[in-house]
Amino acid sequence: MHAATVRPIDSTSVHRLCSSQVIVDLATAVKELVENSLDAGATTVEVRLKEYGAEAIEVVDNGSGIEPENYEALGTVSSS
């Protein structure tokens, strides 16, 4: 029996796997938002929670931002 080969998953498959991920707790939601900031080139990230995150989570950063035409897709299933 031969040992299995370990190799990286291609970027398209990684994107598909990650975009179907469900966020179930506050810590994971904040982690994902901070990672989005870093992916957008942010060097500073500020996270604010209103009512401990139950009412709102706000992330302010100096990354490249989101174009207004993409606002409608924010927070929808399988959007990235």
From TrEMBL:
Q: Name one GO cellular component term.
A: MutLalpha complex
Family membership, please give it. Answer: Belongs to the DNA mismatch repair MutL/HexB family.
Keywords, in A-Z order: Kinase, Transferase
What is the species listed in this Swiss-Prot or TrEMBL entry?
Blyttiomyces helicus
The record's PANTHER family line, in alphabetical order, gives:
DNA MISMATCH REPAIR PROTEIN MLH, PMS, MUTL, MISMATCH REPAIR ENDONUCLEASE PMS2
InterPro entries, A to Z: HATPase_C_sf, MutL/Mlh/Pms-like
GO aspect biological process, one term: mismatch repair
Identify this protein by name. Answer: Histidine kinase-like ATPase
Q: Which Pfam families match?
A: HATPase_c_3
**Keyword set includes Transferase:** yes
Annotated GO MF terms: ATP hydrolysis activity; ATP-dependent DNA damage sensor activity; kinase activity
